[in-house]
Amino acid sequence: MDGHMGMRKISSHCSIPDLDDSDILRLLEKPKLNIERQRSFDERSLSELSIGLARAGLDNYDTYSPGGRSGFNTPASSTRNSFEPHPMVADAWESLRKSLVYFRGQPVGTIAAVDHQSEEVLNYDQVFVRDFVPSALAFLMNGEPEIVRNFLLKTLHLQGWEKRVDRFKLGEGVMPASFKVLHDPIRKTDTLIADFGESAIGRVAPVDSGFWWIILLRAYTKSTGDLSLAESPDCQKGMKLILTLCLSEGFDTFPTLLCADGCCMVDRRMGIYGYPIEIQALFFMALRCALSMLKQDDAEGKECVERIVKRLHALSYHMRSYFWLDFQQLNDIYRYKTEEYSHTAVNKFNVIPDSIPEWVFDFMPMRGGYFIGNVSPARMDFRWFALGNCVAILSSLATPEQSMAIMDLIESRWDELVGEMPLKISYPAIESHEWRIVTGCDPKNTRWSYHNGGSWPVLLWLVTAACIKTGRPQIARRAIELAESRLLKDGWPEYYDGKLGRYIGKQARKYQTWSIAGYLVAKMMLEDPSHLGMISLEEDKQMKPVIKRSSSWTC
User: Fold this and answer.
1) Count of CB atoms within 10 A of residue 183's CB?
2) Would you say 452 and 426 are in contact if contact means Cβ atoms under 8 Å apart?
3) Which of 62, 217, 296, 457 has the highest Cβ tally under 10 A?
4) How far apart are CA 221 and CA 136, in angstroms?
5) pLDDT (tens digit per residue) in 254-269
6) Helix, strand or coil for residue 376?
7) Phi, psi at residue 518, to the nearest 5°?
8) Mean pLDDT highest for which of 64-68, 112-116, 493-497?
């Protein structure tokens, strides 16, 4: 097809020597990195690491082999071990390219699912902002940035549209949840139609879309080295409009963002209203990404940067102090006194210890921890949410010690959080009377299904990135091997059901694009860890809190 002629074909063969995990850790050790910062808030990129490796003769390396074993080739040997890529890779790329959407002859995104059997399309034929992120990363890692640039510019154009739900006008900075391209074969015209939440189930605006757009803009910039897009007046304005929505002053007493249910990947009623971890982690990461790209050549730019810096300090302290849960903190909450008054209160949110669910006492290991789902007055949602915790690691919202504790938790609770198909979007499932109250008897979010404890293959790329950043690639390798045992055979489902993720989801679409792209991104990152630089930010030492609460942080 003409639309595909410009896309670079990937090779079906690779020739890469193996490394074992200890060798990867040595290559990624911070003391060996000597990278000069060009901006005060710019972060170390692992993509720059490959330059040093190339000079050392180690630029071609891999952390994954089909046999599940890694190791250096014999130094004296001048030949390299070649292996045929996993058959899933070729199929994944073919399916990903079939999902491309074109506007006036240019690729501008990928549709949510190419389900050849489903007659009910709903909105799966649209380009979703959050869904496109793993597709964009796959194309960037494969040296095809043009589609990502087109997507960023098209969604930026849509941001400028007037947005109304009934008679209410949405904020100027709101990014669309999705868009579709209508082709008129008679008039030979293409028309963009955007959804800002007015057509979505539940009529909720996508809070996460703007954050993902900023994160993707930074990934494009890091991958291509092209500063012109991020520094263009339109992109600078777009970032400021998104941030204005989040940084405006109001009645808030916390630096976290107050959100409605269903405002992110969990886009149905699931009891995440308030201050959900997914939004807070994405907010933090978007602030840091914007900080590295915003220009300060006028008073408006300088003021915006100052507000971001202040918010980052407050947000990091709040999240690390009040959302973090490990064995010691759980024990402290269990012993909380209530009805405390004044600024010296220990139980600042007046959480009633009897509200702690029974399951969390058995779930919490002695070593390990995680950011809980939600914290607000008299309420703590102790559920695990995978996306928020992985983004917390990648954005360095989590301290290095907390990041390691999250990985310890995943390892020690593998059956619960990974099971037979990575990765549980949330844990545990809510059921019975609680399910009826929290979800409103939602037939799609029954226990261990969809957002209610379902297993989502797309999360594979996020957990792989988190594993590489924390120096635990063996965890990612194990998860990828699990996915490879089922995904292609099952037709790339959207999600899996059951406690172990054993069954294809009861309403899961086949050939779900972000399941396909998530696998490809995980695979490419594990084969070349330098790709991590696109989506990872190193810790800002100025935001490191003085908190000594848990032994698990330093275990």
Assistant:
1) 12
2) yes
3) 457
4) 12
5) 999 999 999 999 999 9
6) strand
7) -60, -40
8) 493-497
Q: 178-184 and 106-110: which strand pairing?
A: unpaired
Cα gap 174→155, rounded to integer Å: 10
* Span 144-193, pLDDT tens digits: 999 999 999 999 999 999 888 888 888 899 999 999 999 999 999 999 99
Least confident of 22-26, 303-307, 308-312, 512-516: 22-26
Structural domain span for residue 391: 206-534
Residues in the chain: 555
CB 356 within 8 A of CB 310: no
Q: Considering just the CA atoms, what is the radius of gyration of the chain in Å?
A: 23
CATH number at residue 315: 1.50.10.10
Q: What share of the chain is helix, strand, coil (3-state, %, to 5)?
A: 45, 10, 45
Q: Is residue 370 part of a domain?
A: yes
How far is residue 430 from each of residues 334, 359, 382, 422, measured CA to CA in Å?
22, 11, 12, 19
Domain count for the chain, please give it.
1
Q: What are phi and psi of 182, to 5 degrees?
A: -95, 120
User: How many other C-beta atoms can be found within 10 angstroms of the C-beta atom of residue 83?
Assistant: 15
Nearest in space to 526 (alpha carbons), one of 161, 86, 186, 10:
86
Separation CA 164–CA 259 (nearest Å): 19
Structure tokens at 369: 């921890």
Task: Please give the Cα distance from 211 to 246 (Å, whole number).
Answer: 10
Going by the DSSP 8-state scheme, the letter that residue 351 receives in this structure is: -
Q: Copy the structure tokens of residue 431.
A: 């059921």
Which residues make Cβ contacts (< 8 Å) with residue 237, sequence separation at least 6? none
